[in-house]
Recover the amino acids of this structure.
């Protein structure tokens, strides 16, 4: 993927579309929904809710490039 494909110069989403996202997007204080994750050490698929039972779980969204 090139930088041009990853980034866009103009956000062409409508104001209404953005407002709808902002209203219904998860908030910082909300618990994330359970979802399947790959354990990178073992390759096993685990549910996020399995991790909540035993420890604090943190999901990082973003780019490290």
């Amino acid at each position: 993927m090139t930088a041009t494909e990853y980034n866009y110069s103009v956000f062409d989403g409508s104001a209404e579309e953005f407002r709808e996202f902002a209203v219904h997007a998860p908030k910082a204080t909300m618990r994330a929904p359970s979802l399947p994750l790959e354990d990178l050490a073992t390759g096993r698929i685990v549910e996020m809710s399995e991790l909540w039972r035993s420890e604090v779980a943190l999901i990082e969204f973003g780019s490290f490039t």
Strands lie at 36-38, 45-47. The longest strand covers residues 36-38.
